Amino acid sequence: MNPELVLPILIPLTAGALSLAFWRSITLQRVLAVVATGLLLAAGIWLMSSTIEQGFLVVEMGSWPAPFSIVLVSDVLGAIMIVLTGIIGLAIAIYSLASTPKGHEKFGYYPLMHLLLAGVAGAFLTGDIFNLFVWFEVMLLASFALLTLGGERAQMEGAIKYVTLNLFSSAIFLSAVGLLYGMVGTLNMADIAQKLNSVEDPGMVTVVSLMFMVSFGIKAAAFPLFFWLPASYHTPQVAVSALFAGLLTKVGVYALYRVFTLIFTQDVAYTHTILLWAAALTMLTGVLGAAAQFEFRRILSFHIVSQIGYMLLGLALFTPLALIGGVFYIMHHIIVKTNLFLVSGITYRLLGSYELKNLGGVYRQRPYLALLFLIPALSLAGIPPLSGFFAKFIVVKASLEASEYVISAIALLVGLLTLYSMIKIWAEVFWKKVPDHVTDVGRLNGEIKNTHNWAYYVPVVGLAACTLIIGLYGQPIYVLAETAAGQLMNPQLYIEAVLGGTPK
């Protein structure tokens, strides 16, 4: 038994149950949120250490041998994602102490946050394709409830688009699982990968793989079904937006990485070419959408879409270097994007708006906040020596080595347009003076006492430090990504770890 493999799921589930038990005590729920997410991070680090040491960790639930049991599996990629989940969970829990309205706290904000983290952790660790669907639905339930907290018109409209597209995705996913089970008679991912090569109808396998691609592509907000994301992510409280931005779409990306490196590798020339062009169009449409926006969080939401394209590009090229770049990019982006949303929340608190035309003067009054914005913003644009530069460099280098020159050019162009968006935010929010029509400047000028400042700034400073560490001390991170990519390129290692190296 490896308890470190179970704890990342058990901790948030237990914390959620205790938060419900302490429904009437908001103070206890707050304390529990910080403690539980801190424990989740500690469990993630323990899991990472054990996984690096042993290569793979497998737990068979119910004492049944795989593939008959439901298994939890951790490889290096899964362990990386759990650590990142812990980091983001802790940052959001601390930030929520200051930013979450009391009304939201009274209606179950903290239990829902724990439920969401449990769903995310479960999706990263499950070795069963049907249970991946179950954890997706746990996430969908929690995220829909978090989106609607407050009940404002914009929130409800965004939530309806969000849940409709995601339910459509779930229906495709479940249908694909049913067809897959009909072909191979198992739901264990390692066992599916082993048996799928002997299926007599390769065309049907390709059809099912495309169904998974569409389903996970919707959840990852890939082209063309990404419009639910910029329509919904800017509507809830900023802590919820940041949590979604950091983690939710990455679960879809992770699922694509898992199934298209482990299960569907029979027709790479066809499936990964589709992924390649989906990646290019995702990058372009996302960044052009961002360039056209003048609302802080909507710009950042469109940039989530464009950056998903880089991650898909790493998978689509399907070379060792490309996968290293993809994994590195995921690590960088989760940290950076969460931080940018948190900074947007601080500027909203100072000036009461997310519209760029209603913002300004922040650099003069809060130069340290301007610096905290510049670090993730320039990293997102790929400026050296920050984390985004090395992530983009690896992905672009991999595309050049694969002779995909058009894709390389698109990736570089998207980087330039991303820089344009970040400069636009800098010029409007930080550099220009406060617009004459904005009169509510008491908080910005320090006339109104700012309470709970530490809870706003500690997560932002911590995530900015992570960005700098990844950029300036990137060698260990690269080695970690290289190890993860090596395991993804050799699916037999995963199969042998789960099934013991013998056909079942």
Describe the structure.
This protein is mainly α. It has a domain at 267-472. The protein has 22 helices and 2 strands. It has helices spanning 3-21, 26-54, 76-99, 102-106, 109-125, 129-148, 153-184, 189-196, 202-220, 228-232, 238-262, 268-291, 296-317, 320-351, 362-365, 367-381, 387-401, 405-431, 442-445, 453-472, 475-489, 491-499, and strands at residues 57-60, 71-74. Strands 1-2 form a two-stranded antiparallel sheet. Helix 3 runs antiparallel to helix 20. The radius of gyration is 22 Å and the shape is globular. The model has no long low-confidence stretch (mean pLDDT 91).
Summed up, what is this model?
With 504 residues, the protein is an all-alpha fold. 77% of the residues lie in helices and 2% in strands.
Mean pLDDT: 91
Quote the distance from N terminus to C terminus.
21 Å
Biggest beta sheet attributes: 2 strands, antiparallel
Structural class: mainly alpha
Uncertain spans: none
Q: Considering DSSP H and I runs of 4 or more, what fraction of the residues is helical?
A: over 70%
Number of strands: 2
Backbone shape? globular
Radius of gyration: 22 Å
Q: Count of DSSP helices?
A: 22
Strand and helix order = HHEEHHHHHHHHHHHHHHHHHHHH
Q: For the largest beta sheet, what order do the strands appear in spatially?
A: 1-2
